[in-house]
Predict the structure.
Amino acid sequence: MPTPPPIPPKIVLALALALALAGCQPGSNPRAVPSVPQIGGDLKCSQGDHGYEDPQAGWGFCYPAGWRYVERSQASQSPPGLDLTFDITDATCASPAAGGAPQCSADAGLFGFMIISTYERGSSADLTSWIDSNLPHPPSSDTISWGNSVQAFRLADGRRIALTPHHVVILELHASPLDLETQMSSRLATWKFSY
């Protein structure tokens, strides 16, 4: 039996391209499913907000969609933990449909700075005992509701502190031209702490 002639490389390439294109055609599943988890994808954010989630730190929250941020991290030794800093700029502008100049919010261009610290809970039975053991000269505090935390306080200096089963989280909003206090305090209920 004679051997068939070899298939020319151009035909092989054309067949491979046709198969690749056929795989991209919409079929019974028109919505693509991401292969990696989406940051903040499981948070219940209001329309117009974005979600931020840090699985390593064990928390996530919603923030205004117009915010842009630069995040930095630094380890903490005493108590052991992680500090994440956020340099935030409000870039809320919309382009009009008919062209022309963009329409920006009154806060566009303003900036702010916040720190979210995550510490090991250790053997502390409650938030008060953790504060007494780890914060020098602890300020007075008021009980607050903060996402799904086990227990949370607002300290007299304005910081918020939450106890989760494994961590203690401190939110520190620095005074700045951008009103982080109003924006973040109105979104405390959106926080999700891992269990």
In short: The chain has one domain: 42-193. The radius of gyration is 25 Å.
